[in-house]
């Protein structure tokens, strides 16, 4: 037995000894997916087969399938408190040395440089930034937060059945299906395609010279997790509810603004393990911890943008064929260089047309 490299779960490039590395602890998804076809298309997104179990663990790859020099931060100390043993032992459990009374876990190695890039977020296909302004849906929660009153569903309307009215825009009705809205202005349907994102709603209100709720503009600086809907986290935690019910709330029911503030909402595509929230409950007042969670949510969203699943890293040849990895890196670089040039040329043409 000897040293070996592992594969980065995003880039597929080899990670060698001493490389700054992020380990993503994962648990197998309870819903089994029977795949057919050449593409996986699922509402679970990157979490089709595996879901996040804890926040990432950062260290250096140790040359034998694990991490060393692990970065000790409040989040790792919280895991040590919960499990009752050092973070190094949890890492060994994830990477192949199982411990009793700990759930069976998997892991995904990622080059730290690549993790950091994805955690910053990428523009979408239209060049839009990673904010709720461009990427969140106009959900019924969002509509309420903008000052609209939402009535009971109208059974005569099949899909867009929730009537939403605003006291300062009496001539406008938004008909919501819970996720998107259709518009009715002075009794007539206006848009044929619906309104899907906050910036679409802003453009619609601007075009008709209608009142624009100030809360709408705040979404330009908010993460795209369909977020600032129900109530402030501190209010949530101060309620007379049991710890178990808070745990069931999960971190996937918390939205995170870039300034670190939290809001709670009821529906989410972030399908984290139900214990995720429990490990870190004491840390929500720590701004640094909140930024880490914001970064992790952004990383998961970026995986969706770059068509990558959360999956354990594959390991082939024991020693890691460094020559094959080098050849792969050069080939990928050639393809990426050509693709970047093509995209730059198209952007330049679009700029000239404008």
Count of discrete structural domains: 2
Show unreliable segments: 224-270
The radius of gyration is 23 Å
What's the N-to-C terminus distance?
A: 61 Å
Percent of sequence in beta strands: 15-25%
Give the tally of β-strands: 15
Q: Count helical runs.
A: 12
The gross shape turns out to be globular
Major beta sheet, specifics?
Answer: 5 strands, antiparallel
Percent of residues in helices comes to 25-40%
Q: What is the average per-residue confidence, as pLDDT, rounded to a whole number?
A: 77
Secondary-structure-based class equals alpha+beta
- H/E topology pattern: EEEEEEHHEHHHEEEEEHHEHHEEHHH
What does the model show?
The structure is a single chain. The protein is an alpha+beta fold and 354 residues long. It is 34% helix and 17% strand. It has helices at 74-83, 87-95, 112-120, 132-135, 140-145, 198-207, 214-217, 233-238, 243-249, 276-279, 287-305, 322-353, and strands at residues 6-7, 14-15, 20-28, 50-52, 57-61, 67-68, 106-111, 149-150, 162-166, 169-176, 181-185, 188-189, 231-232, 254-256, 262-264. The strands form 4 sheets. Strands 3, 4, 5, 6 and 7 form a 5-stranded antiparallel beta sheet that branches. The chain has a 5-stranded antiparallel beta sheet with strand order 8-9-10-11-12. The radius of gyration is 23 Å and the shape is globular. The relative contact order is 0.16.
């Amino acid at each position: 037995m000897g040293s070996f490299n592992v594969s980065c779960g995003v880039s597929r490039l080899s990670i060698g000894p001493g490389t700054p590395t992020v380990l993503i602890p994962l648990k197998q998804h309870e819903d089994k997916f029977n795949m057919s076809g050449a593409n996986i298309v699922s509402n679970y997104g990157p979490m089709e087969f595996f879901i996040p179990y804890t926040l990432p663990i950062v260290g250096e790859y140790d040359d034998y399938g694990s991490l060393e020099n692990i970065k000790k931060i409040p989040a790792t100390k919280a895991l040590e408190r919960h499990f009752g043993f050092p973070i190094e032992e949890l890492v060994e459990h994830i990477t192949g040395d199982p411990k009793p009374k700990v759930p069976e876990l998997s892991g995904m190695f990622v080059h730290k440089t690549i993790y950091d890039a994805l955690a910053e977020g990428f523009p979408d296909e239209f060049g839009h930034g990673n904010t709720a302004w461009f990427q969140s849906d106009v959900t019924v929660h969002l509509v309420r937060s903008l000052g609209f009153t939402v009535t009971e569903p109208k059974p005569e309307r099949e899909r867009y059945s929730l009537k939403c009215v605003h006291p300062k825009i009496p001539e406008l009705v938004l008909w919501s299906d819970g996720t998107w809205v259709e518009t009715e202005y002075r009794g007539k349907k206006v848009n044929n395609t619906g309104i899907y994102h906050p910036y679409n709603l802003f453009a619609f209100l601007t075009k008709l010279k209608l009142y624009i709720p100030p809360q709408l503009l705040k979404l330009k600086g908010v993460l795209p997790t369909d977020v600032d809907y129900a109530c402030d986290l501190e209010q949530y935690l101060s309620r007379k509810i049991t710890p178990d019910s808070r745990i069931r709330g999960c971190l996937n029911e918390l939205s995170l603004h870039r300034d670190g503030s939290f809001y709670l909402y009821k529906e989410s595509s972030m399908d984290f393990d139900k214990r995720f929230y429990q490990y870190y409950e004491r840390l929500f007042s720590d701004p640094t911890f909140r930024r880490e969670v914001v970064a992790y949510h952004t990383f998961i969203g970026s995986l969706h943008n770059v068509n990558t699943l959360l999956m354990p890293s594959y390991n082939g040849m024991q020693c890691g064929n460094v020559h094959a990895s080098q050849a792969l890196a050069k080939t990928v670089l050639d393809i990426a260089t050509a693709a970047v040039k093509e995209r730059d040329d198209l952007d330049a043409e679009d700029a000239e047309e404008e």
